[in-house]
Amino acid sequence: MNSELFYAVLGGLGQFGIITRARIPLQPAPKGVKWVRLLYDDFSSFTKDQELLISKNGRKDKSALDYLEGSLLMDQGSPDNWRSSFFPHKDHPKIISLITKHGIIYCLEVVKHYDDRTKHTVDKEMRQVLQGLNYMPGFMFGKDVGYEEFLNRVRSGELKLKSQGLWDVPHPWLNLFIPKSQISDFNNGVFRGIVLERNITTGPVLVYPMNRQKWDDRMSAVIPDEEIFYTVGFLHSSGFDTWEAFEDQNKDIMRFCNKTGIMVKQYLPHYSTKEEWVHHFGSKWKTLDIGRSVYMSASVYELFAWPFYSGDKLEYLWQ
Fold this sequence. Notes:
Blueprint: H1 3-9, E1 32-40, H2 43-54, E2 67-73, H3 92-102, E3 105-114, H4 122-130, E4 140-146, H5 147-151, H6 153-163, E5 174-179, H7 183-198, E6 205-211, E7 228-234, H8 243-260, E8 265-266, H9 274-281, H10 285-296, E9 305-310, E10 313-318
Antiparallel strand pairs: 1-3, 1-4, 2-3, 5-7, 5-8, 6-7, 9-10
Helix pairs in contact: 7-8
C-alpha cells in the first residue's frame, strides 16, 4: 500500500518506522550439518576461495553451500576461546604455533545441510565443493552435528560466558561493509596494522563476502557499489574500565579508511550531524530526504517516528 515507506523501513535503522508484525514462511528443517573449517596463512587465497564459493549459490546446485563465514584467528589463547569447541584439542598446539608465526591466521567456515535422504551423499558433495581450494594442507577440520546444535553454537558460548560472569559487559562493536577492490588494503592497514599493533582485540573478528545482487536496492540499507563486498565485524567484549581502548581502536580504523580512501559503509552507524548522514546514504539521500517530507504529511498507519534536522541535531516528529 505504501511501498516507498516499506522499503525505507528495511535497513532504515528505525528512523522511518518500526515493523510490528511479519509473516514468515516455513519449510522442513534439515536433520544435520556437515561443518568444516579451513585455515589460511595467505589473505589473497582466503578471499579468492570465499568469492568462488559464494558464486555457487543456486538453491538446487549441489556445489552450493548453505553457510559461509570467514574469521581471524589471533593470539587470544585457545582457538576456541570465543565459541563452542570445534578444533580437536590434539591440534591446538599446531594451530597456536601457526598463529604465533604469522600473527593472524584466516579461518574459512562452511556448512552443508543434509536430511535422511541426502546424509549418504553429503560427504561426497562437500569434497566436490572444497576441491581446488587453496587452504593450508593438513589444516582442514570437520564434524557432523545436529541442525539445532549448529544453530545454537553461539548460545552455548553465551551460557559459558554467563557462568563466568563475562557476558554482561560492554561490547564496543564495529561492523563495516567494504568493497571487494579494497579489502586487501583493509587487511594490510587494519588487520595487520592497527589490530596487530595494539594487540587488544578480544572476541571474534569476522570477514566474509556477499553478492550485491542478493540485496534489494530499494531498501534504505546502504552497501558498497561493487558487485561483491565484504562484511567485517569486530565483535569485542571489554571490561567496564577498558572499553575506551576499543572505542579508540574503532575510531582509528574509521580514520584509516577515510584517510586512505577506502569506501567503507558502517552497519548500524551512529551519526550526530546531517552532513554525516548525507555522506552515509550517498546516492540514496535525495530519495530519502524527499520521501521524508512526503511521509510527514501522510495519514497515520501505526506509531512512527520521522527524522528531521534542526541545525545539526537529529530530531523526530511523532505521528
